[in-house]
What we know:
This protein is mainly beta. It contains 6 helices and 30 strands. It has helices at about 130-135, 150-160, 185-195, 385-395, 410-420, 440-445; strands spanning about 5-10, 30-35, 45-55, 80-85, 100-115, 120-130, 140-150, 165-170, 175-185, 200-205, 210, 230, 240-245, 255-260, 265, 270-275, 285, 290-295, 305-310, 320-325, 340-345, 350-355, 360-375, 380-385, 430-435, 455-460, 465-480, 485-495, 500, 515. Strands 1, 2, 3, 4, 5, 6, 12, 13, 25, 26, 27 and 28 form a 12-stranded mixed sheet that branches. Strands 15, 16, 17, 19, 20 and 23 form a 6-stranded antiparallel sheet that branches. Strand 26 (about 455-460) and strand 27 form a beta hairpin. The chain is flat, with a radius of gyration of 29 Å.
Amino acid sequence: xxxxxxxxxxxxxxxxxxxxxxxxxxxxxxxxxxxxxxxxxxxxxxxxxxxxxxxxxxxxxxxxxxxxxxxxxxxxxxxxxxxxxxxxxxxxxxxxxxxxxxxxxxxxxxxxxxxxxxxxxxxxxxxxxxxxxxxxxxxxxxxxxxxxxxxxxxxxxxxxxxxxxxxxxxxxxxxxxxxxxxxxxxxxxxxxxxxxxxxxxxxxxxxxxxxxxxxxxxxxxxxxxxxxxxxxxxxxxxxxxxxxxxxxxxxxxxxxxxxxxxxxxxxxxxxxxxxxxxxxxxxxxxxxxxxxxxxxxxxxxxxxxxxxxxxxxxxxxxxxxxxxxxxxxxxxxxxxxxxxxxxxxxxxxxxxxxxxxxxxxxxxxxxxxxxxxxxxxxxxxxxxxxxxxxxxxxxxxxxxxxxxxxxxxxxxxxxxxxxxxxxxxxxxxxxxxxxxxxxxxxxxxxxxxxxxxxxxxxxxxxxxxxxxxxxxxxxxxxxxxxxxxxxxxxxxxxxxxxxxxxxxxxxxxxxxxxxx
Length: 516
């Protein structure tokens, strides 16, 4: 589908899309892509990994991974960068968008051949966004104190190996008293921080991982509607079926509970001892041989009120470990020939033990790990609820309280803030239009982004009594031969966020409720 869309894959993984066969546009028969939240609500919806699928012509077997005659043989691998560009050109008209602007970016998942006996061969390409690319990885981050939410997100992305240049992080509004990650998936670790901030984690069109703090949409340009879609006959931009109001009742919550966890630091103590001694002492071979062991605390098989480790102590020779040429300790003392490199996490310490003696193997006859443990104090819980809403809609408790709120005051502010928005129904919409209908529609299809503000009028034919602003929470696109570009947006109400007041950001006198 040349002219408007360009689909590219970095087959040789060199960071550009300029090599032979990396522009697959001429082979593309149809394409669909999506980005955004899994459900429309800003409160309960979470940004899920974007998806892109394309059907490609494959008359020569170019996209068959087992075809050794293909110029791509050996290069059709998961994780190759994929990008879809929108470009100025004829469709058959020009339209006002930036030349060669990314409208979806991610990573190759797979290509499946679609062979036919009739002789017209095709292949199906699937790709996912950055969050999907990282989701299989686990991270461990050492105990952090007084850590701002955006810095903690940076810690997780650093541990996952995600480049600093490929992220865009707002300054967090919440500072967590303590925070750590203990062998958690990247996505779960990020979600906990996102919930604590009441922020928004998302993928950008140009393959970045972004983090919006909770004030992000309370500042310009989110005050201003970027377009108006109306059901009036003379509307410059109109919508089509499917157009519907999404049931608002599942998103009504009139009880918000938040738990605050505080911690106490204990004194220096032995937190772990290696269980193998005597004849079972682990062997570290001579002349640079190494052994990797993990000290974990607390021991999951032993009852304890300990929660994590504030600070691990780097192991000290003779105090924390002993080594000998004989497993029962009766041979040559090799303790000073042993080097220990410790990598510290919240609930574990990785110990890489190296034997530097040139001629003698070493047995670790004793090994322990010391540190200062953390215990959790009795949790404090705060609650905000609305009796009128409970009378009208029944008791509805928000099911996912934040994990790392620093104190009861912030917990109360968190609960009050969300209660004020979600105790009553607010409108959510699903809106569709044809992007290939005209230059104006195509500009909306390709220029609008997650979080953009648009106006919807649904008074004339839709009869919903709606004339108000909404935020785009998810987008779905499908382009098929014709060409026909179908667009669907999920929209959340923006009006509930228009009367919050933020210092140095909001318009004084028009935003009257103080945001926390």
